[in-house]
Specification:
Rossmann fold; 2 domains
């Protein structure tokens, strides 16, 4: 009897130990998502959230990361710098996430990323493309290809394919992203010896652009170079067509969204943009992503959803090298160390990081090393320019 009791106790201990071991091995990996889910930038933020949620479902359904489940903690930063700062503080110090994806706009990233850098918490931008975002420090990453990389390629393609010889420039002068876009467009125009007939500006929240467009029309350009977000970019295109301006628009990341077809409606044709992703790109990885996204959300994805989807998969690859022990500071550091070496082929094509430098020329964070695809809008769709 005593022997039987001893065996039962021993078995109980063994089962208990085994159960504890399983519990210890299976953990929840908390990752923050700071996305603009309200306000004007929600036109990007909703798609970004969808991309992350789709990727998390796929990764978890396939067994997670080393048996651990990814948990996304999604917060609305409203596309505002102050809210992005508040969201970062919550995710870092209260929720104790291992990494933050976001924020949506470059303006917000420039304000909030220094907080994460100081707290030694990795940040992964999927939609901010302005200059200087990753120069903050070695905890800042992004897979959104910079305007400095994309805009010269877009401009060169328009020149070669549409015979553009001189352009007018229109940009938002009170936003980090649109100002950076202007700076990069200006450099590319100078490098290609393309004359600028006139340079006009606007401010965030403006709704009437007819005065600027009238000056542009009078300057007789072959195309309009536009650095804007959707909120201003779409009405600019509408008002241009109303004034009889049928010229090509050469845009940046801010207007590269299928939302342009809803917001600009019949005025959305002849917009040239560059991105590593295109809805028309028929690689197996992209076709699989588009099919899964459309099935889940009942609509086609855009560039921002694709970049978010790939970003989580990239982080998941790095997490495979991170031991999850409950020591958040140690896990954050290990994740930061693992990320730079990740290469991935996803919806946006082959991806790897390249190191950025700070203002002093010293190594800092990491940018995307990808080749952009140039597309032009025709009949409510993007067509790859070949």
């Amino acid at each position: 009897m005593q022997l039987l009791k001893s065996v039962v106790v021993a078995l109980g201990v063994s089962v208990g130990v085994a159960a504890s071991a399983v519990t210890a091995q299976a953990a929840e990996i908390k990752l923050g998502v700071a996305s603009a889910l309200s306000g004007l930038a929600a036109q990007y933020g909703a798609a970004i959230r969808n991309g992350f949620e789709l990727a998390a479902e796929e990764i978890n359904a396939a067994g997670g990361v080393n048996g651990n489940t990814i948990k996304l903690i999604v917060e609305d930063e409203q596309g505002k710098k102050e809210e992005a700062i508040n969201v970062y503080k919550k995710l870092i110090f209260q929720d104790k996430v291992l990494l933050i994806f976001g924020p949506t706009l470059s303006n917000s990233a420039s304000a909030a990323n220094p907080i994460a850098q100081a707290a030694k918490t990795p940040v992964f931008g999927t939609s901010n493309t302005a200059d200087g975002i990753t120069s903050v420090g070695n905890f800042i990453f992004r897979n959104s290809v910079t305007e400095a990389d994309v805009l010269p390629v877009t401009l060169e393609t328009v020149v070669n394919k549409a015979g553009v010889k001189k352009v007018a420039v229109l940009y938002g002068n009170d936003d980090v992203f649109t100002k950076s876009g202007y700076d990069n467009f200006a450099k590319a125009l100078k490098d290609h010896n393309i004359p600028v007939t006139t340079t006009e500006t606007f401010a965030k929240g403006d709704v009437d652009f007819k005065a600027q467009l009238t000056k542009i029309k009078a300057s007789n350009p072959d195309a309009i170079v536009l650095s804007a977000l959707l909120a201003e970019g779409a009405p600019i295109m509408v008002q241009a067509r109303q004034l009889g301006i049928e010229l090509p628009f050469v845009g940046g990341n801010g207007v590269n969204s299928i939302k342009i077809f809803d917001l600009a409606k019949g005025a959305s044709d002849n917009l040239w943009v560059g991105s590593p992703w295109s809805l028309s790109n028929d690689t197996p990885e992209n076709k699989q992503f588009i099919e899964a996204y459309t099935k889940k959300y009942g609509m086609a994805p855009d560039q921002f959803a694709a970049q978010a989807f790939d970003a989580l998969h990239i982080v998941a690859q790095a997490l495979k090298k991170v031991e999850i022990t409950g020591d958040v500071a140690k896990e954050r550091a290990a994740l930061r160390d693992a990320l730079p070496d990740v290469s991935w082929v996803g919806a946006t094509g082959p991806f790897k990081f390249r190191q950025a430098v700070d203002k002093a020329g010293k190594p800092a964070g990491y940018d995307a090393d990808q080749t952009p695809i140039v597309s032009v809008t025709k009949n409510g769709a993007y067509e790859i320019v070949k």
